[in-house]
Amino acid sequence: MNNGRLTGIEACVFDAYGTLFDFNSAAQAASDELGNDGQRLSELWRQKQLQYTWLRGLAGRHADFWQVTGDALDYALSSLGLERPGLHARLLDLYLHLGCYRDVPATLQQLRARGMRLAILSNGTPTMLAAVVRNSGLDGLFDAVLSVEEVGVFKPHPAVYRLAPERLRLAPDAICFLSANAWDACCAKASGLRVLWCNRFAQAAERLPEPPDGEISDLAQLPAIVCPPPSP
């Protein structure tokens, strides 16, 4: 970081859920059924979804993110007494139609116009990611959409973060990784990537090794920070 800028960046790689796509939008779209329980459901669903990825990784019992998302939803619906016919299937379908945050389209287009390469690096399955990218109107903006299914383990395993430099054929320090999850940002930094934490939810910093290179409150700040290498 130099004067608040990251220099020598050739690609920006984004986490998907919570960074580009609003995971709360599934429950919001089902507010006619969920009513005042929607936010509680969304928060518990997300909490268990992440817990199950970490627990499966530690136990060596991988299942893809679609199954994990469904299992977490089962738990959340049961815990909150919201088990109703058709609701589970409806919410899972809505997860394929998550809305992107308002700052996302313009930021991606601005970066593309400057010649920056763009990618997603996510726990999501290839099918899940293809659907949410298409349904949010972001088709054609990414050079690569990378799923943990290529390595068979969830974040924060180092093998996941190595996918970005390997697939983009760039040195790790030529990549800026963006995540709204502070733990994800720290672990990506520990794996050698340059990292900005997109602190969308004004959270406290994690007490983990390797803090990110910087912090932004939304992605609209990104184009002013990342700088490509100087022309030869």
Task: Describe this protein's structure.
Helix 3 crosses helix 4. This protein is of the alpha/beta class and 232 residues long. Helix 7 links the parallel strand 2 and strand 3. The two termini are 21 Å apart. The protein has helices at 25-29, 31-34, 38-59, 65-79, 87-95, 104-113, 126-135, 158-168, 182-190; strands at 11-14, 117-122, 144-147, 175-179, 194-198, 214-216. The chain has a 6-stranded parallel beta sheet with strand order 3-2-1-4-5-6, with helices on both faces. The protein folds into 2 domains: 11-22 and 99-224, HAD superfamily/HAD-like (Rossmann fold, 3-Layer(aba) Sandwich); 25-95, Putative phosphatase, domain 2 (DNA polymerase, domain 1), CATH 1.10.150.
